[in-house]
C-alpha cells in the first residue's frame, strides 16, 4: 500500500516562528509516512530559522527519540499482556528477556493495542527567546530501571571520543536505546552542544525528552545586527502628526482646562468625528446622541482622549507609508474589538484595562507595517547596511518577514512617546510571560484576542495558545474557548453592517 504524503504548510510554520507558538504533531502508531512527515516539518522549521546546518543531526535525534517513545509505549501493553508489573525490578528484568523477540515478531498487533490504550507520541517544536525547543513526549512515565539506564548512558558519553569509538565499544542486546542515546549526544556535540542541552523528565504522566538549541552564533549575530539597524533607522518612519502631538502635550499638562482641550479637538475634523463616534457608541448607551464637543470631552475623560489620539495619529501616520494596509488593519480592528469585549467580560473591575484594551489591540502589530509595506527608503537603507556587513540576504528576509516585529513596533511607539503600557503590549504580545507584572493582564488579553483571530482563520490550533494566558481568564477547555470565539465573531460581523 502506498504511503500517505502529508503536505508541509510553510505558512503555518512561519506564523508559529513569528509568534513563538508551538507546533505539535501527535501519532499513536508512528507509521513510516508519519516519521517522514515529522522529519520534513523539522527540516522546514530549521530552514526558516537559517539553521540548515543542524538538519541532518537533528533528524537523526528525532528519529531516535520517537522510536524510543514508540518502544516505551509498546513495552507498557506488552507487560500488561504478560501480567507483569513494569514498576517491579524483578518483573521488569523478566519481561525484557522476551520483549524484543516477541514484539518484533508481531509489530502490528502491539501497535494496535497501544493505539486502543490511547498511548501517543507527540513532537513539539517551538522558537522563543532565540532558542529552539525540540520535544518528544509519550504518555508512559519512566520507571526507575529505565531512568537508570538513561542516566548511565549520559554519564558514559564522556568516555567516547567519536561516534565510531562508541560503536566499537558499546554492545546492548536488551534495549537498542542505549547505543542510540549515546550516538545522539555525540551528534549534538558536533553542532556545539553538550548533554546539558538534553533533558529527560516525567511530568503529569508524560515522559518528556527535550533538546534546547540556541541559534548558531553567526545567525544570532546577524539577526541582532539587522534588528539593531532597524531600530537605528526608525527616523525614516514619519513623525506623529504635529497637531496631535501638540494636543498630547496639552493633555499631559495638569493645569489644562477641559474647555481648552475641547477647542483644540474641534479644530481637527478627524478628531472631532472620532470623538463624537466614540461617545455615541453602544459603550455609552446615551438616550440622545451627543453633538457637543465640550460634553463629549467630559464624558470620555483624559485617558479616553489620549487613546483616541494614539488611534487617529497612528492611522494618519501609517496612511503615508507605501503599501496595501487593508488586511493588516482589518486584523487590527478585529483584535481591538475582541480585546475590548474580552476586557469587559473578564476584567470589568479593572477600569484601566477596559479603557486601554481597544487601543492596545488596535496597535499591537504596528511593527508589521514597517516590514509588510516595503517603505523604500527605510528598507533599502537596511539592505545596504546588511550588504556592507556581509549579512546574508536570507537572514535579512527572515527578519523582514516579521520575526522581531514586536520589538520594532515598541521602538516606534517609544519614539512617538506612547504610554508605557501600550509600548509593553506591542513589545510582549507574543511573549506575555516576559511582560512586566503590572501589564501582564493587559498583554495577555491582547495575546488572547490575537490568538482567537488566528484560530478563526485556521492559522493556529487550540493547543498552540499559551496555557498560562488561558488560565489567566479561566478558560480550561477547547469547548469553552470555542464558545467565546463564536460569540466574538458573531458580534464583530454584526458591527460590519
Overall description:
The structure is a single chain. By secondary structure, this protein is of the alpha+beta class. The chain has two domains: 10-215, 2-Layer Sandwich (Heat Shock Protein 90), CATH 3.30.565; 220-237 and 321-495, Hypothetical protein af1432 (Orthogonal Bundle), CATH 1.10.3210.10. It has 23 helices and five strands. It starts with 9 loop residues before the first helix and ends with a helix. The relative contact order is 0.08.
Topology:
Elements: H1 10-19, E1 23-27, H2 32-48, H3 55-81, H4 89-104, H5 107-116, E2 121-128, E3 131-138, H6 144-156, H7 163-169, H8 177-190, E4 198-203, E5 206-214, H9 217-232, H10 242-251, H11 258-266, H12 269-279, H13 293-318, H14 326-346, H15 351-363, H16 366-372, H17 376-388, H18 393-403, H19 405-415, H20 420-428, H21 440-456, H22 467-472, H23 478-495
Antiparallel strand pairs: 1-2, 2-3, 3-5, 4-5
Helix pairs in contact: 1-2, 2-3, 3-4, 3-5, 3-8, 6-8, 9-17, 10-13, 11-13, 12-13, 13-15, 14-15, 14-21, 15-20, 15-21, 16-18, 16-19, 19-20
List its salient traits:
single chain, 497 residues, alpha+beta, Heat Shock Protein 90, Hypothetical protein af1432, 2 domains, five-stranded antiparallel β-sheet
As for the CATH topology of the largest domain, it is: Heat Shock Protein 90
How many distinct domains? Answer: 2
According to DSSP, the number of beta strands is 5
Tell me the distance between the termini: 52 Å
Count of DSSP-assigned helices: 23
